[in-house]
Specification:
Layout: H1 2-12, E1 38-43, E2 49-56, E3 61-68, E4 77-80, E5 85-92, E6 97-104, E7 113-122, E8 129-132, E9 150-154, E10 164-171, E11 178-184, E12 189-196, E13 202-205, E14 211-217, E15 223-229, E16 232-235, H2 238-241, E17 246-250, E18 256-261, E19 269-274, E20 281-284, E21 291-296, E22 303-308, E23 316-317, H3 323-334, E24 339-345, E25 351-357, E26 364-369, E27 375-380, E28 392-399, E29 405-412, E30 421-425, H4 442-449, E31 453-458, H5 467-471, H6 480-494, E32 498-508, H7 510-521, E33 528-532, H8 551-560, H9 565-570, E34 584-589, H10 597-609, E35 614-619, H11 629-647
Parallel strand pairs: 30-31, 30-32, 32-33, 33-34, 34-35
Antiparallel strand pairs: 1-2, 2-3, 3-4, 5-6, 6-7, 7-8, 9-10, 10-11, 11-12, 13-14, 14-15, 15-16, 17-18, 18-19, 19-20, 21-22, 22-23, 24-25, 25-26, 26-27, 28-29, 29-31
Helix pairs in contact: 1-3, 6-7
Length: 651
Amino acid sequence: MLHRFMRVALCATGLSLPAAAAAADLIPVEDFARHATLSMPRLSPDGHYLAVRMDDNGSDAHALAIYKVEDMDKPVSLLRMPRYELPANIVWTSATRLIVEKGRQFGSLDIPLLTGEILATDLDGKHQDYLFGYETQQSSRAGTRGTDRGWGFYDGQPAPANGHFYMAAHIWQVDDHSYLYDVDAAHNTRHLIGDLGVGGMSFTVGPDGQARYAYGRNDDYEYVVYHRQNGGWARLGAAQIGGSFTPIDYAPGGQRLYARYNADGGPMALVEQDEDGSQRKVLAQDGFASIGDIQWTPLPYQPFAVIPATGLPKVRYLAPDLPSAKLHMAISLKFPGDYVHFIDFSEDGGQLLFATSSDRNPGNYFLIDTHTYKVRKLFAAAPWVDPLRMAERRPVRFKASDGMELEAILTLPPGRDQANLPMVLLPHGGPIGIQDDWFYDGDAQFLASRGYLVLQVNYRGSGGRGADFRDAGNLKWGTRIQQDLIDGVKWAIDEHYADAKRVCVYGGSFGGYSALMAPIRAPGLFKCAVGYAGIYDLGMMYAKGDIQERKSGRSYLTTVIGRDQAELDANSPDKLAGKLEVPVLLIHGEDDQRAPFAQAKAMRAALDAAHKPYEWWSVSGEGHGFYDEKHNVERLTRLQAFLEKYIGKGA
């Protein structure tokens, strides 16, 4: 009966996807450079209101907008942020009050960096307050908050919502401590519920309202987990942590715990266990990939479906008979080719905010009444993008030269023969713990729209496959990681996807490093290289850039690139410029803090000294990846012209 009524209501909305073929004319480059106007929707606990991040990218203005779900034409209230600041996280603490974590966008290649400041507001824009941060004079408790010199971060909340949330705090003068507070967002009061003498920890709160687990990387870049026992904190041993045990939340009833876990460093499974680690039950696992997105029921929360962290997002239902699982199945049938993600239920389960997205679709947001099954489309993440004109992104697997099985994503130019295509290798940034996935990728789609095959390899060091695979990239930035990329290119050529005479490499951040390093490691394989916001001198990372500014960052560098100067030089493109036999294009933001402008200047000087051909474009005011839409239009235009110059026009 549930499925019959659901089908009628969903069909009545007219949401089935058309089957028309894509138009043949070229998609404007501007469509790949635009930013979303609305993003990060959050449904209020009563299901009546929607909070979203609103961006005016022409003026670089950002705001928190609150809409009544029955009227999305005009916001009920608008909380405008200072210039360059934006809502980086939005949380309803009650049906009428929200908190906002402030962030700054330093570049398109970085997610917004949290400033450690937390604001609160009523949904009508009244009773605004500054709950934590270094601007204590803005707070209603300014007279007693002089010691709030540090960072505060949202770290969960009670369920059901009661106006409170949990805040992890890291005080500047006390680097070796992590604190967790229960904060009343309406009255700007708080009390301590967790205190651990290790910096940088996140917490899991137990049914008793006290911090029960603390976990994260300490200043030595070690992953550690602590459990509250007998009034103190006990550090769990390697046997208990396995491959990075991560507590998620308590199961209904409060006696069991959901967590991610693998005993030996392989792909992470979703497990349920007693708090002491006994009676562990595997709910979902995969031999190749970690468990990725987890879908949750309304209160009391329990997982009902998962997808793998790599490959196609094939849904596995943990409890197919649950109403949430049946609802997910029914909605998914109406959006073939898209992944349906449940974002928020109202606390009574009557309203559901969900999103649909795919390799071709950046995302659409909907609200469904779970009683009548009436669906309303709220907004599209990028309404100018026509999914029918976008390219297929195809996950594939291949064997590296040492026998390791790797995953890659091929983006296939639409409407072209899938053989002997001009190809661009597009290495992802990071590199450690980051991965390329099947979902929409703007740069890959742009290149495919111009007729280029795009190859993205999840080399060793990437995320999505567990601790051992991630750590296999440590100290191998210029060697094994580059060989994995090279092996991927050779595989694409051997499989006749790519034309061996027309291969270029382009990447940003660590991808920019690889764009110059891979041609050095494989002379003759590439015809050109484009480095965007790249790292070109590994040793410089210890002296310049924001990573080395904190002890934990320096420990990270020691772990992933080492301190042997000879090894650093042997794996730095600026020290090996004489071996570059391809034309180079360098693109960099002059205000980049992650890969400082000095990196690009060092590479340019090395190319000059080696008398190697290159093109250069730097932009003042841009950080780690360009944010300004005009600059991104020019970046993509220059990229296209460079590719056409050295590997010809796309297919």
